[in-house]
């Protein structure tokens, strides 16, 4: 099709097929859901860009007949993909995508649904690794609810063992020659549930790797509403306190300070980073530091608080926002913060990906009043602004 790239022989980690040939009408409207806006850009563009960034080459996008204009508009700004027309059913569309890759002769191929826009890099890496020992690999999640088998009369006819069941996601990864041969050999009277079933029917081994809730399929109108009605800017505030005790290290903003006392807590008790982390999480409405890193979990005993802030910054990006600036105030009588301010600004900027001029760190006392005035602890409060990134 016009504007499409050729399909060269691939030495890349994998080729990719993004299946976008469905009608996608359950979300309402006349535009197929894969071409509608989600988090500031077309749904399909998110996974296509992620696959490109992970090294997919070639990348084929399979669309329905007559949808080329929708697809070109949705993928504007992305180069290197090839558009092809699919078939009446998903399996036909995948087969068309596989056949289109034949001259490129990739070693591995990912097959992904365009309706799953949020594709974690960890899943991509796990799938590639699994193909060293298996012909196919799929991301799955456990089933957590009890299951019942329904009768024709919609009454309970039995129970299913959830321990042996998994929720299947995409992308699904395969050795290209094996999945192409499996599709060509498929003789089932009905369409297969997914490409892993096609491979398994031909005798191929399919590994299960850990999936991710982020791979949720966008299906209904409310799935779009959750992410499209976003303000351009949001503000969060955080406040934290830790006791000063003898025998502990003193960490503030990821910098270790020499002092006769340190802060007590489950992690390294970096009260400043804790306040900033809570402010970031507050700005995107995603709980607080205890939600993501419970103090009851021994995994976080003595942990460096920098990883908490990095996690919050990552969640901000996934929510469609970017951190704009950070304004932190540390409240204590001692130690003096001024000499350490440059190192603190640099570390907070590194953890969040900001320039140092977007990080403000101030210090004040309470004129000997209260627990900070008596030197019993240190408090910190932070305000963070985030802005929509797309």
Provide structural commentary.
- The chain is α/β, with parallel strands linked by helices and 390 residues long.
- Helices cover 28% and strands 28% of the residues.
- It has 12 helices and 19 strands.
- It has helices at residues 43-54, 68-74, 90-100, 121-130, 176-185, 195-201, 221-228, 271-283, 289-292, 306-318, 341-352, 370-373, and strands spanning 14-20, 37-38, 41-42, 56-63, 81-85, 108-113, 136-142, 147-150, 156-160, 166-168, 172-175, 206-210, 233-245, 250-252, 255-257, 262-263, 321-331, 359-364, 377-388.
- The strands form 5 sheets. Strands 1, 4, 5, 6, 7, 10, 11 and 12 form an 8-stranded mixed beta sheet that branches.
- Helix 5 crosses helix 6 and helix 8 packs parallel to helix 10 (306-318).
- The protein starts with 13 loop residues before the first strand and ends with a strand.
- Mean pLDDT is 89; it is low at 1-11.
């Amino acid at each position: 099709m016009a504007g499409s790239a050729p399909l060269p022989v691939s030495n890349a980690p994998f080729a990719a097929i993004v299946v976008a040939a469905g009608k996608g009408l359950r979300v309402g409207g006349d535009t197929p859901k894969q071409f509608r806006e989600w988090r500031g850009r077309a749904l399909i563009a998110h996974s296509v860009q992620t696959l490109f960034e992970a090294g997919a080459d070639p990348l084929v996008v399979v669309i329905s007949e007559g949808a080329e204009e929708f697809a070109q508009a949705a993928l504007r700004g992305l180069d290197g993909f090839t558009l092809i027309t699919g078939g009446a059913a998903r399996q036909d569309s995948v087969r068309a995508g596989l056949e289109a890759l034949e001259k490129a002769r990739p070693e591995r191929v990912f097959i992904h649904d365009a309706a799953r826009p949020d594709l974690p890099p960890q899943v991509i890496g796990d799938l590639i690794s699994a193909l060293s020992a298996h012909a196919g690999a799929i991301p799955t999640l456990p089933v957590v609810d009890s299951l019942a088998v329904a009768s024709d009369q919609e009454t309970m006819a039995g129970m299913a063992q959830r321990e042996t069941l998994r929720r299947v996601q995409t992308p699904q990864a395969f050795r290209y020659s094996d999945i192409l041969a499996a599709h060509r050999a498929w003789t089932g009277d009905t369409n297969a549930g997914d490409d892993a079933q096609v491979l398994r029917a031909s005798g191929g081994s399919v590994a299960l790797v850990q999936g991710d809730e982020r791979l949720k399929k966008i299906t209904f109108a409310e799935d779009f509403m959750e992410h499209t009605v976003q303000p351009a800017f949001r503000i969060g505030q955080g406040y934290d306190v830790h006791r000063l005790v003898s025998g502990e290290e003193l960490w503030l903003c990821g910098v270790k300070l020499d002092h006769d006392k340190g802060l007590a807590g489950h992690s390294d008790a970096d009260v400043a980073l804790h306040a900033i982390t809570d402010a970031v999480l507050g700005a995107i409405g995603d709980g607080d530091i205890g939600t993501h890193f419970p103090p009851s979990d021994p995994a976080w005993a003595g942990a460096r608080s920098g990883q908490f802030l990095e996690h919050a910054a990552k969640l901000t990006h996934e929510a469609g926002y970017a951190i704009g600036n950070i304004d932190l105030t540390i409240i204590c009588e001692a130690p003096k913060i001024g000499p350490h301010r440059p190192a603190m600004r640099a570390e907070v900027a590194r953890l969040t990906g900001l320039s140092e001029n977007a990080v403000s760190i101030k210090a004040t006392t309470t004129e000997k009043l209260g627990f900070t005035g008596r030197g019993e602890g240190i408090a910190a409060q932070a305000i963070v602004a985030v802005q929509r990134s797309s």
